[in-house]
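If you are new to this repository, start here. Below is one unmodified record pulled from the training split, so you can see the exact layout before writing a loader.
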Amino acid sequence: MTRNVPNRPSAFIYGLGLAGLIPFVGLAALSWVPEIMPESFSSRGLASYAAVILSFLGAIYWGLAMSGTPSDSTTDRIWLWGVSPSVLAWLAQLLPEFWALLLLSGLLWVCFIVDRIFYPKYQLQGWLPMRLLLTTVASFSCVVGALGIR
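And here is the target side for that same chain:
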């Protein structure tokens, strides 16, 4: 299988990443204004969206593992990591929204740390600045959303 992934995100991809922050920021803000949207909708929506994003972040590793590089032992760990964010995010969904959002915020950072370890092995370290920005805003939004729960 050939790898056709750019070493760094294009402006278009960067824009998609930033657009992906809109639900994080919007739902976190709405959790503080229950007159506009019921708190349960904004907090549950935020937790659900964070879980979906965590599943996406794990799926990236399935793509890397399918490329067959850099080594078999690393590939086994990457297959395992690929399913971990979605399973952990699903477990977070079983918690009350406050705790779920805090756990999801932490899981977003765990994904970033794993990216910092594995991306250089695939010559993808150019993606890390964008990942840092997206992780910072998304995880902060989860904390803001949690604190907005009354």
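Two things worth knowing about this chain: Helices lie at 11-19, 22-30, 39-66, 72-93, 97-118, 128-147. The chain has six helices and no strands.
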